[in-house]
Amino acid sequence: MERLEAVLELCSTQNILQLVQGLELEGREDRNVCCTAIQILLRSQVDNVTRYRKAWMLQDYVWEKLNTGHWKEVWRGWREMYSALSIFRIGCVIKCLLEKLGACDIPGECTDAKRQKLEFDETVAADDVINRPIMEEIVKLSDLGLLLGAPILDNTLEKIAETLTELLSLSSIVTSQKSNIEEEHFRLDEVQIKLPKACTPLRELSKIEEPSIEDFITKYKIPGLPVVLKGCMEDWPAVRGSRSWCKERLVSIAGPRTVPVELGRNYTSDQWTQKLMTVREFAELYLAEKPGEIGYLAQHQLLDQVPQLGDDVRIPDYCYTGEAEDEDIDINVWIGPAGTVSPLHTDPKHNLLCQVSGTKYVVLFPTNDTENLYPHQSPLLFNTSQIDLQAPDLENFPRFAQSHGWHVILQPGEMLYIPPRVWHYVAGLSTSFSVSFWWR
Predict the structure, then answer these.
(1) Alpha carbon distance 345, 367 (integer Å)
(2) 184: which DSSP letter?
(3) What pairing do the DSSP bridges indicate for beta strands 406-410 and 203-204?
(4) Are 279 and 255 in contact (CB under 8 A)?
(5) Contact 98, 65 (CB under 8 A)
(6) 136-170 pLDDT, tens per residue?
(7) What's the mean pLDDT in 214-218?
(8) Euclidean distance between CA atoms 239 and 15, whole angstroms
(9) Long-range Cβ pairs for the range 320-328 (8 Å, 24+)
(10) Which of 154, 199, 269, 274 can bridge 265 by disulfide, Cβ–Cβ 3.0-4.6 Å?
(11) How far is CA 66 from CA 27, 76, 90, 147, 312, in A?
């Protein structure tokens, strides 16, 4: 009960009202009408189910405004209204739960199974009233408010999602079964890309055992040479033990959170798209033994979204060798089945790609090969090569034959250091969990 009351306190109608009243409407009629409608709703004395439905209708109107024109040109107030209405809707539902109303029918996103009279699961904790389907729907509502809206009221939506995700995980955390699963073993000569005979053969990238900070800086960071670091993830709970990462632990800890999933061959493909879904839906669809298509949870800050998973990793000391002492380190996760591909591209920051579980095949080319790799001319893909390493075309890209690259199989527990502007291609050989750390 205490957790739900804490969430309700975060959904303060007075705070939402003050935020909406403070929006700069700039004399626009549509903004004024919507803002006024929200204020009338916030002050209304009707029942919570009716308030929920009216807020949902207003949020649909705001959503239309968010999708009119280019995203970066959309008035920020629409995003703040969207988040504010998400918080208000959550407050309505929590009030229904706490009052133990005879029927709290939640319209909209809920399935028929979720449109039910309140049932309280007493198997979780004596002091918590929980209805799992409704709690998961609230977490989803919070995430959508974060993804489509703005971080308002001291990041209230993130706090709600974290609180309820932790509450839900109390009854579902599983001990990792990874120790019972044998990692697949791959040979470099069996998985390597097939280059035309005119091309220079790829060299196998070096692997070294836990270098000192001094050696890392002088031998690899300053010269800008990629290398695989072994033995540097021994203290990661995500790698071994009861908290090691696998499909089951991912779902138990982060199942209700909504994330963007990439669908299609890779982001340069015409068929590539993204879809929002919960982590549970992603795992069931794309981390199955033989998924029907490839889905990739790529370059997503899941560890910020779910701090419990963040506790399972350690920031490598090598990441603190940057020029700016106070600059944040960008941490992203990459989770997907065998067959995921990140096409040949380059990034502006230092990168440590840490392989937690599963195996990846990586091809790299030095910065001085940039001309031979034919970067796209498009502003959106300027850091991506036109070379398709799965089918190199020397007729259209003849200079590619002059490039000199490396390749390597990245095993669980290994880190790959990729210097800035070094080109790299990454392919998943098995179901894979990776974490990348970027710094300047």
Answers:
(1) 11
(2) P
(3) parallel
(4) yes
(5) no
(6) 999 999 999 999 999 999 999 999 999 999 888 87
(7) 97
(8) 43
(9) 320/439, 321/213, 321/216, 321/217, 321/221, 322/350, 322/439, 322/440, 323/440, 324/440, 327/439, 327/440
(10) 269
(11) 18, 9, 21, 12, 36
pLDDT at position 171: 59
Rounded Cα distance between 287 and 277, Å, is 14
79, 277, 306, 327 from 354: Cα distances, Å: 35, 25, 18, 20
Task: Give the tens place of pLDDT for each residue, 275-294.
Answer: 999 999 999 999 988 888 89
Q: How far apart are the first and last CA of the chain?
A: 45
* Residue showing tokens 């991912």: 250
Distances (CA, A) of 343 to 381, 410, 431: 11, 17, 18
Contact between 417 and 229 under an 8 Å Cβ cutoff? The reply is yes
CA dihedral of 43, 47, 53, 56, whole degrees rounded to 10: 40
Instruction: Give the number of other Cβ atoms within 10 Å of residue 215's Cβ.
Output: 12
Give yes or no for a contact between 233 and 413, defined as CB atoms under 8 angstroms apart.
Answer: yes
Residues 283 and 327: beta-carbon distance below 8 Å: no
Tokens 């590539």, residue located: 272
Residues 6 or more apart whose CB falls under 8 angstroms from that of 50 comprise none
Average pLDDT of the residues of the chain = 89
**The tokens of 309 are what?**
């998973």
Per residue in 45-75, pLDDT tens? 999 999 999 999 999 999 999 998 888 889 9
DSSP 385: B
Q: What per-residue confidence (pLDDT) applies to 101?
A: 42
Core vs surface per residue 12-32: b (16+ CB within 10 A) or e? eeebbbebbeebeeeeeeebe
pLDDT in tens, 380-418: 899 999 999 999 999 999 999 999 999 999 999 999 999
Query: In this predicted structure, what is the pLDDT of residue 125?
Result: 39
Long-range interactions of 15-20: CB distance < 8 A, separation 24+: 15/153, 15/156, 16/42, 16/84, 16/87, 16/88, 16/153, 17/42, 17/43, 19/80, 19/84, 19/152, 19/153, 20/81, 20/84
Measured CA to CA, the distance from residue 56 to residue 107 in angstroms comes to 9
Phi, psi of 120 (to 5 degrees): -110, 120
Please give the share of the chain, as a percent, with pLDDT higher than 70.
Answer: 89
- Residue 107 pLDDT: 42
Asked if 350 and 420 count as a contact pair (C-beta separation under 8 A), the reply is yes
d(CA 6, CA 161) in angstroms, rounded, equals 12
